Amino acid sequence: MKPSPQYLEAHQTRQRAPTDYENLLADALEQAFAQGIDEIEPLVARLNRDCVPSPGGKPWTEELFAAEMQRLGA
């Protein structure tokens, strides 16, 4: 039996393509995870060190990071 095409779509839950900002943030997080950084405090420090833009252009904080992950995951 052949699977339904809906199960073959790699991004079937997407409503739209990611924005440039979302891709930049995702790339920065992937690089941090690849280096073993998986706690929020060092992730935030890494985003600030690498000058990854945050919403509003302010420095990343743990609270801002958590809020942005919540917003993007909604």
Features:
74 residues, mainly alpha, 3 helices, globular
Helix content: 40-55%
Total E-strand runs: 0
Give helix and strand order, one letter per element, not per position. HHH
Structural class: mainly alpha
Can you describe what's shown?
The protein has 74 residues and is mainly alpha-helical. The chain has a domain at 39-74. It is globular. The chain has helices at 20-34, 40-49, 62-73. The termini are far apart. It is built from 3 helices and no strands. The longest helix is centred in the middle third of the chain and has 15 residues, at 20-34.
Task: Lay out the secondary structure.
Elements: H1 20-34, H2 40-49, H3 62-73
Quick rundown:
The protein contains 3 helices and no strands. With 74 residues, the protein is an all-alpha fold.
